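Subject: Protein record for review, amino acid sequence with backbone structure tokens
Concerning: The relation between a protein's sequence and the shape of its backbone.
How to read it: Take the token row as a discrete description of the fold.
Enclosed: The protein record, placed directly beneath this head.
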Amino acid sequence: MIYQSLLIQNSFQVTPNEIYEIIKKEFNNIQIANQEFNLVFDGQTLKIEDLDYLLEWSSKKTEKGVKVLLIQNSQNLSEIIQNSLLKIIEEPTQNTLICLVTKNLDAIIETIKSRCRIVIMPTYKNNLNVDFEDFLKKSYFERSIEFQKLANLDKIEQVKFLEDLSNFAIKKINKPKILRELIFLQKAINSSVQSNLVFDNLNILIENNFKNTKI
């Protein structure tokens, strides 16, 4: 079967397995081929000389399922490489699916966009619709995973998350010291401090203060 290529706009980094789940949802729960048949590239490191290999790969047959070429961070693909990818996208082979994941649709050339099924994933805050009462009860490790996603978003969304958490804390917890810490972290996000360091500190703050506080 011939499948239309997929172009996914997503605000944060996701794993190949998470992308495969999106593919299954978009194409009526199709079966993905075994891992050895699939390819994963990063748009920042994909080179023009890799394209001959991709053409050869696209012609290979699988024993079962659809083989997937996944290119993460496609917003970093040069226009030359994007134009070269068109041959594979325009002439898909049997049981082969091309999936580009980008943080910025505008970075993808129109000729690719016009040939792909476009999926726009919700941003973190809309997707998660954070229930802070539940969020604060998560384990340190579970929160770390969520904070890794947040660290890949725009500062506007990161600040919005901290503002929402602060508003929740004001309503539920009467501890001025914690509120001062949250305000400090909001200011740190807007400065040159790396967001992953801010969220590491936030996770420690939650672990040391919120976990033992009745919400």
